[in-house]
Amino acid sequence: MSDFQINPLVLIGVGSSFAFSGLFYHLYKEKKEEIRKLKEIPTFRPDQHLVRLLKASPHKRLQYVAIEGLVQAEGEPLASQFVPRCYGVLQRISIQEHWKVWNSLTRTWNSRQRNKKETNNSVPFCLVCPGAYINDLYVKVQAPLQASGCYLERVYHRVRHAEEGLVDMMVQGLSGEKPVSQEETEELLRVGSTLTGFGEVVLEGGQVMRLQAPQGGRQYILVPTDYKSFMDGHESSATMWKGLTAACGITGASLLFGMLHSLFGGRDRKRE
Fold first, then answer.
1. End-to-end CA distance of the chain
2. DSSP 217
3. Backbone phi and psi for residue 103, each to the nearest 5 degrees, phi listed first
4. What is the pLDDT of residue 164?
5. C-alpha pair distances (Å), 34 with each of 29, 67, 112, 165, 204
6. pTM of structure
7. Distance from C-alpha of 249 to C-alpha of 257, rounded to nearest angstrom
8. How far apart are CA 137 and CA 48, in angstroms?
9. Alpha helices per DSSP H over the chain
């Protein structure tokens, strides 16, 4: 039997392949369930159909829907501090300093981030249909900063490297710290960009509607794309997990088949 020992690396490969296949299948099933729930959410645009539906609904509200539209400031928009003729309704400016700190134990310079400054600005805004006017039909977005989702677009990014002189180097040698760079970033939710919001919609009066955080513990979400692109991204993710499940499963099966073939084929040849 010593002539037909099984390579432990092959066993590890088989077990790992099937283990990863099971993990990816679990992630695939979770993503498909998430997609199924997303498809159950009604999707609307700020139009007359939504107004009529709200007027006919109890308490003139829809508990959890997706609203897709173009971002429009209700008043004066925010101007970018770095990019000309660039306007938004939500703005985040951050400044981050990068330093090197001397570690006397390892005798190396370690990276540190310090003195991060962040400024957030916002103005009231709403969602409108493409081609619509602000005084026609629109959905006001309430408390957008409370919503989850990566809905800000980076419009400016710059890294300023520190300049070192002879005096600076001497001071840094004594203090054990030296500046490396300063990173500046500006992010905006730009006017005219497409946004999809998931939450509760309420008819305030007339044809004015409001998107707000839903009740019952469901998430208030803002997505910087249209609903179709949002769903396509989830479908692509599910396809990826499905492909990885199949690839790992086939790899594990191939390794197992090769191991069994070598084992039993070698025994048959020895008998002959």
1. 15
2. T
3. -100, 110
4. 55
5. 9, 18, 39, 57, 31
6. 0.77
7. 12
8. 8
9. 8-39, 48-56, 166-175, 227-271
